[in-house]
């Protein structure tokens, strides 16, 4: 029987297109040789999903009752040629967009982007890793922090006007990566979010792709775990202290204490938030069950390619069902930073 729990699909439209070099990024970090190796191995400098695939994925998603599509969490999706057409598909098939962007809003004025994005989008997650210019520009190389603050103000202004006119609400989120070189500003990030009218602050623990950033993980040892847990306490105090202009609290998500055992494995009781609920489709069509780093998630098995397999085929496949039943025994999943309490 076809799985009817699937509610969201992520499509990596243009993972190599980005105007920043965030230190923790699998592909664009100054410590990464991913793009160089991609070219050496394939002769391709930039993978970009053909738009006819995007159309077909929307069609399949509609037939399966999918509620949201995320257009790329790698690279900057707003750099994808013809990105505006994705919102036309959203309207055509009744599937909302959930957008992750780095906050630079390239190629168009922010207000123009906002008027295109807001009516069709449930959530705009803006990559945000600091409360100060110095920290932000050390983590997200090439970013203009002060300009990004102004961009958020402009975006929220359009969002609020649209809500007042139509009653439709598009949530705005700060999306964080929890690291030892930026989370000393976590409480101040929440304070800034409240001031700007940002609705939610969420994030995840670091995937330490490179040796150069391994020491930034809070899961490194007992001392770093204790430090993170202190920041969590400060975060909830900030949430209760600083309110949005409408008087509401900023919603905090995934900002939870770490257990001391998590320096080795996550607790067995923690569950995968993706299996049976979400799928990822790469720019080359590879279908994946989660957002683990590309090289790591290959260890989970082969789930086909959108050129030759449908989304429904994947959900019904033996490989996928085996993963659903046994993921807690798989090495990658045992240490996955995305698993959380049920």
Automatic annotation (TrEMBL):
GO MF term set: iron-sulfur cluster binding; lyase activity; metal ion binding
Cofactor(s) essential for the protein: [4Fe-4S] cluster
InterPro entries: 4Fe4S-binding_SPASM_dom, AdoMet-like_SPASM_containing, Aldolase_TIM, Radical_SAM_PqqE_MftC-like, rSAM, rSAM_sf
Entry keyword set: 4Fe-4S, Iron, Iron-sulfur, Lyase, Metal-binding, Pyruvate, S-adenosyl-L-methionine
Record flagged with keyword 4Fe-4S: yes
Domain Radical SAM core: 3-243
Identification of the protein by name: COG1180: Radical SAM, Pyruvate-formate lyase-activating enzyme like
Source organism: uncultured Aureispira sp
Lineage: Bacteria, Pseudomonadati, Bacteroidota, Saprospiria, Saprospirales
């Amino acid at each position: 029987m076809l799985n009817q729990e699937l509610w969201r699909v992520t499509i990596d439209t243009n993972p190599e297109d980005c105007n920043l070099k965030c230190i923790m990024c699998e592909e664009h970090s100054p410590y990464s040789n991913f793009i160089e190796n991609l070219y050496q191995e394939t002769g391709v400098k930039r993978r970009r999903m053909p738009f006819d695939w995007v159309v077909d994925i929307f069609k399949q998603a509609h037939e399966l009752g999918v509620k949201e599509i995320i257009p790329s969490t790698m690279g900057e999706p707003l750099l994808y040629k013809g990105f505006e057409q994705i919102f036309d598909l959203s309207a055509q098939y009744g599937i909302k967009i959930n957008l992750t962007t780095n906050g630079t809003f390239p190629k168009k004025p922010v207000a123009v982007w906002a008027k295109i994005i807001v009516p069709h989008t449930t959530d705009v997650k803006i990559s945000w890793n600091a409360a100060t210019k110095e920290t932000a520009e050390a983590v997200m190389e090439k970013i203009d922090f002060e300009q990004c603050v102004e961009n958020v103000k402009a975006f929220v202004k359009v969002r609020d006007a649209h809500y007042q006119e139509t009653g439709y609400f598009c949530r705005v989120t700060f999306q964080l990566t929890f690291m030892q070189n930026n989370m000393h500003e976590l409480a101040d990030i929440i304070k800034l979010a409240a001031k700007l009218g940002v609705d939610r602050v969420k994030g995840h623990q670091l995937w330490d792709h490179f040796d150069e950033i391994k020491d930034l993980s809070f899961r490194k040892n007992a001392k770093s775990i204790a430090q993170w847990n202190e920041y969590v306490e400060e975060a909830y105090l900030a949430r209760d202290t600083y309110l949005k202009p409408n008087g509401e609290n900023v919603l905090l998500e995934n900002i939870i204490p770490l257990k001391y055992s998590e320096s080795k494995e996550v607790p067995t009781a923690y569950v995968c938030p993706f299996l049976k609920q979400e799928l990822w489709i790469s720019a080359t069509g590879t279908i994946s069950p989660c957002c683990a780093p590309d090289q790591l998630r290959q260890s989970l098995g082969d789930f086909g390619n959108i050129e030759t397999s449908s989304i429904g085929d994947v959900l019904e496949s033996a490989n996928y069902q085996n993963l659903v039943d046994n993921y807690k025994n798989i090495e990658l999943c045992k240490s996955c930073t995305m698993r959380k309490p049920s």
